[in-house]
Amino acid sequence: MHRISQITWVIALIFGVFFAYQAFIVMDQNQPFGTESSFHISQVDSKRGVALKALEDVARSQRANIYKVQSNMTSSFNRNELYAFVGDQAAFARAGSYEYPSFSSLSGSYRIRPASSLTFQDIRGEYKTNVGGGRLAAILQALSEKGVMAENDGYPPAVGFANFFAFGMAESNSGAFILALLLAIILSLAFSCSRHRKAYALKELHGYGKGRIVGQEVRDLLLFSGKAMRIIFLALTVLLGVANHFHQYWRFLSLLIITWAVLLAVGLLAMAVLSRIFIGGIRIVPVMKNQNSTEINFAVGFATQIVIVALIFGALSGSLVRLNAIQQASQELQAWRKAGPLYVTSISTALPQKQMFRDGRAFRQVTDELEIRGQALLAVSHVENNPDAIRTGERSYYSGNYRSLFINDTYLKTNPIHDLTGKKISFSDFRRNQVLLIVPQTFSGDLDALKKNYRADLKDWCQTSEEGAGENKENKGCDPQISLVRAKAGQSYFLYNGTGVGLPAEGQSDNTSRISSLKDPVAAVVNVNSHLIAPEILISYASSSSILFTDPHALSSRLDKAGILGDFAGINNAADIVAYSIQLSRREQLMDILGVILGLSVFVMAIAVLVSAYCELKKKQNFVQLIHGYPFGRRHAAIMVTGLLVTVAALVFASFIGHMKGADNAVLAVVILLLQVGMTIGMLDFFESRVHASMIKES
């Protein structure tokens, strides 16, 4: 193997550790240590106590450990609780008993609790167990006989491992990085084979068959891989011992072995195919005279350059978007923390729709009580996820459009808004149907038409039923009474958005940039106690983080008292969600940086292979032109223009596919073009000098 191939292969094995780590994060989040399979309880036909006793009995009779997965009520996005029905004490102890062996901060953290701690939580939902196959089927059958309907929602081991890798790569945004790595492997091996063509020719001259030569190349790669893997493995073992005291060491090692096995299979296949292609194209006499054609290198170099330019452009563009989102989210985080702790909750998606609607009525009653105490904040905007919202003109202030906002009195107390006299606006009228419309001084449209629009929309909200919105049922209680106040111009309203659980900072918005505040919108102050927001709509607002609460304990106790606490998927500190989204984006950005570094290395390698092949193909012509005084640009105009056109085509293709527009992306494209031109000129000068020196030496 050529030295470049060896270095590339070591890099591939090292980054195989990164791939295994990303997959392990997903595995640990979805299949906790000490578990093997999953099932889902969708229906319980027996009483709660009977169902819990059934789970205990089945775990004991099947000698299995069954874990109920439950969101933590204060940080469900970052930590889950596992309620253990223990039937196999030895296996439970090996899994850490009630102390979960956390691998890393990103891979999730669990609190193991005894099943006796299950009080208000819904028995339905997700379960994990340490058995699979026939024993899992026996558990499901035994539960169904006791009135607990459960079904297997896991995958076979091979499919499960594939899913862990797929989701790990997706969550860390590693697709471009993997492609760059594969290109680096193929290109470096092709370069190595091209440099060994004399050795191949000599072996053929001494009677070696093509299969034997290919076998030797594959064996050399295998031997080198074994040495490199041993060194990397020893270094990794020391690192894991220091970093996390060997927590889940063997489990992580299983994923690393799979990763390396896949990389090795790809490398061996590439080596076998490429060496066979190069050996098949050898003509012994020309090779021994350094006159062998290098069309294969020429084709590989051009093809790689096309792909890698598009890849680098996409990775850099995505990294800029992430960087902008991180900066904005960091600024928002300061505003969140300045406002004090605020919490969001959402209804469990596993619930049947009718159950959600029934819970909605109880949830509105809970929110009514908390709002009167100033502990429930409403902030509903349409700037992020409504592509149909009108963004300009008078109608942009109408309900549901870009410059419209729905808030309550708690919002006004937290974010003071001033009227034309400078007095703080408040609206502590909690009677039914009462609405205050805050219209900015900058609005110059028809106020009566504006009030009519909001009245119609609020009436439609109020009349929403289980059958759907806008049924216009006869409901004498839905009669919005709108009063109006003008607000001083130049005031901004914080939107309290960007709290999508488990989403990176750039994924919190459908737009290319986050929008954290609105300047001079029309704000309709609609207290929940006005009952103009139907329960079905209110619970959807809660699930989209448009209702926030100041006291998680007051919220959880009232939800528990209403009998619906178990139907909610946890209570999260909104500022923590924003901070976690920044952490996820930085994780993606790390892979962006690694991908760009590797991509640039492949870019340099591709240009080197391309220019080397060009100089070999055109060495006589270029030498004659040099002797006759042709300048550098004239001698190499064809390859330089061709390379430039290929790069431009790759950039245009990438921008079209990725919808990459704007000044930032234009600057990136120019930088990539300048890099391509500069590296091409430098390598042309270097390789041309080497080829000419070789020709003079041979003559």
Jot down its keywords:
six-stranded mixed sheet; alpha+beta; 699 residues; 21 helices
Low-confidence stretches: 466-474
| Spatial strand arrangement across the major sheet | 4-3-2-5-1-6
Computed CA radius of gyration, to the nearest angstrom: 32 Å
- β-strand percent reads 5-15%
What gross morphology would you assign? Answer: flat
Whole-number mean pLDDT: 83
Please tell me about this protein's structure.
The protein is α+β, with helices and mostly antiparallel strands. It is 57% helix and 12% strand. Among the domains are: 31-154, no CATH class; 335-577, no CATH class. The strands form four sheets. The protein has a six-stranded mixed beta sheet. Helix 14 (447-462) links the parallel strand 10 (434-440) and strand 11. The radius of gyration is 32 Å and the shape is flat. Residues 466-474 have low confidence and may be disordered. It comes from Parascardovia denticolens DSM 10105 = JCM 12538. Keywords: Membrane, Transmembrane, Transmembrane helix. This is Bacteriocin-associated integral membrane protein.
Q: What is shown here, in short?
A:
With 699 residues, the chain is of the alpha+beta class.
Q: How do the helices and strands line up, and which of them pair or pack?
A:
Elements: H1 3-30, E1 37-44, H2 48-61, E2 66-71, E3 79-85, H3 89-94, E4 109-114, E5 125-129, H4 133-145, E6 148-152, H5 157-171, H6 175-195, H7 197-205, H8 210-244, H9 249-280, H10 284-288, H11 295-339, E7 343-347, H12 353-372, E8 376-381, E9 404-407, H13 409-414, E10 434-440, H14 447-462, E11 481-487, E12 492-494, E13 517-519, E14 522-525, H15 535-543, E15 547-549, H16 552-561, E16 568-573, H17 574-617, H18 619-627, H19 632-635, H20 637-658, H21 663-698
Parallel strand pairs: 3-4, 9-14, 10-11
Antiparallel strand pairs: 1-5, 1-6, 2-3, 2-5, 7-16, 8-9, 8-15, 10-14, 12-13
